[in-house]
Design goal:
By secondary structure, this protein is of the alpha/beta class. The protein has 2 domains: 291 residues, NagB/RpiA/CoA transferase-like (Rossmann fold), CATH 3.40.50; 65 residues, no CATH class. 50% of the residues lie in helices and 10% in strands. The protein contains 23 helices and 10 strands. Helix 16 runs antiparallel to helix 17, helix 16 crosses helix 19 and helix 17 packs across helix 19. The longest helix has 21 residues. The protein is elongated.
């Protein structure tokens, strides 16, 4: 089972990152995978003007949807209920898990089979179900692999991207009864499918995520490539969908542009293999579909981002993973080093709202601020600007008035004093001259250990002569 995230990702982040960069196989694998995904995405967007226009449209749709979020959520609930779908609201992970467990117990469910859902990973649903004595089985091939390994996803689109075929072969041989070791990829996929196919028929409940929820029609949109999402939502007698409150859009016509951006940005496909539109449980005369459909709308810190005009842009995300695929930091350390459900650049701006800034402050600094993430984001989220904002919030003073959970928890008194001294020196010319004179003359006393800076860089040492001194010497020679 995937382990619950009841820890502070910032604690141990540096150690996990060092361990990842010291693993040549991991680095080679991630570098190759990221290059492959970048190439596939580029091949789908050959017309720069078309891409720019589509990104503008996608960003406008997401901003418009968020500007009317409370109203659209009410409209969505009204139309879903009219369609026969049960709507539940969860403020946090515990409430979301309790809702699922309550439905499962009422139906006397023993097995929940899951399609891919990052929100279910966010709330550690597998762990909660296991604690309630209910089996939860991932049916997405990547999720199934990491579940067998007792790990969490390392990428929001490709959960097992950190695994080699040799590692998967060893895992299947050790964990799947009756399976012999094979490195043939087709055979490995067939092994997984054979296990899962029977489970679809046995499952009492199917659980899925939601890519977009359409308010005007009460429709849940689900994108996938393997068919497992369709099986999860049609074969079991009960279907539970879980999603963040930000996934709502007003009209069905808003879905196609986002669909086009998502598939091409995520995996470099023109379209995904399956686009499921779910608007009701099985109707009289229909041959398939669940008897009950439930939707859980999860907050879990999202209203914190929504209430801040700048940070609201975080909620525009359509979970394509393009920012990860182009991030030089993610490509070197992988997803597990971040210690959060959502790794990479998007995780660095989403996680502070889910877990608090104090628990995640290191993630905002795990960026070069090169801007690659913003350049490829299909809905134009200004990720570097948000990272800088979160860095400032992490170090904010107690009286700053910040309403963000955990703001200022990582504030260092020593660092604060250093920057206050720096500001004082640079705002008083005479003090600056005196300080730089002593620094240049006493450069031999400069410490060789300068914290994290000298961990990978040479020490900073003042120049033997100030620029002022050099100019004075040159002027004296010309007199």
């Amino acid at each position: 089972m995937t382990q619950p995230l009841h820890f502070h990702p910032s604690e141990g982040f540096a150690a996990r990152a060092r361990a990842a960069t010291a693993d040549p196989a991991l680095r080679k694998g991630f570098r190759g995978a990221m290059d492959f995904l970048q190439t596939k995405r580029q091949a789908q967007f050959t017309d720069a003007a078309e891409l720019s226009d589509l990104r503008d449209l996608g960003a406008a749709i997401r901003r418009y949807s968020l500007s009317r979020l409370p109203e659209l959520l009410q409209q969505l609930e009204t139309n879903l209920v009219a369609n026969g779908i049960h709507v539940h609201w969860a403020e946090n992970a515990d409430e979301a898990n309790a809702i699922v467990i309550d439905i499962a117990r009422r139906r006397e469910a023993k097995l929940v089979i899951k399609g891919k859902s990052m929100v279910s990973e966010e709330v550690a649903l597998n762990h909660a179900l296991e604690g309630a004595g209910i089996e939860a089985l991932e049916s997405d091939m990547g999720e199934y692999i990491v579940q067998l390994a007792g790990e969490g996803p390392s990428h929001i689109i490709m959960p097992a991207i950190h695994k080699t075929k040799q590692q998967i072969a060893e895992l299947f041989a050790a964990k799947v009864p009756g399976v012999t070791y094979t490195e043939n990829v087709d055979e490995l996929i067939l092994i997984g499918r054979n296990v899962l196919r029977q489970k679809f028929a046995e499952a009492d409940i199917g659980l899925s995520g939601v890519n977009f929820a359409v308010a005007e029609t009460g429709t849940l949109c689900l994108l996938e490539n393997e068919g497992n999402g369709r099986m999860c939502t049609t074969v079991p007698k009960v279907h539970i969908a879980i999603t963040g409150i930000e996934k709502v859009v007003e009209k069905l016509e808003h879905v196609p542009p986002l669909f086009s951006l998502l598939t091409r940005s995520a995996t470099g496909q023109a379209v995904t293999t399956y686009l499921n539109l779910i608007s009701s449980p099985r109707k009289p005369g229909e041959r398939d579909g669940p008897e009950e459909v439930h939707l859980i709308l999860l907050d879990n810190g999202r209203t914190q981002a929504y209430n801040d005009e700048q940070l609201r842009a975080t909620l525009q995300c359509i979970r394509c993973g393009a920012c990860m695929n182009h991030c030089p930091v993610y490509a070197r350390i992988g997803g597990h080093a971040y210690g959060t459900t959502y790794p990479g650049p998007i995780g660095a701006i989403v996680s502070p709202h889910l877990l608090g800034i104090g628990a995640t402050h290191a993630l905002a600094t795990a960026s070069t601020l090169c801007g690659a993430c913003a350049e490829v984001c299909p809905v134009r989220i200004p990720i570097p600007e948000l990272l800088i904002r979160l860095r400032n919030e992490a170090q904010s003073a107690a009286d700053s008035g910040s309403e963000l959970r955990g703001a200022g928890e990582s504030r260092s008194v020593l660092v604060s004093m250093i920057f206050r001294a720096w500001a004082l020196m640079y705002t008083h010319p005479m003090l600056y001259r005196i300080a730089t004179w002593f620094m240049s003359r006493g450069r031999a006393l400069t410490p060789t250990a300068q914290g994290a800076w000298t961990g990978i860089r040479t020490p900073l040492v003042p120049a033997p002569k100030r620029l002022r001194d050099l100019l004075a010497e040159r002027n004296s020679r010309h007199e």
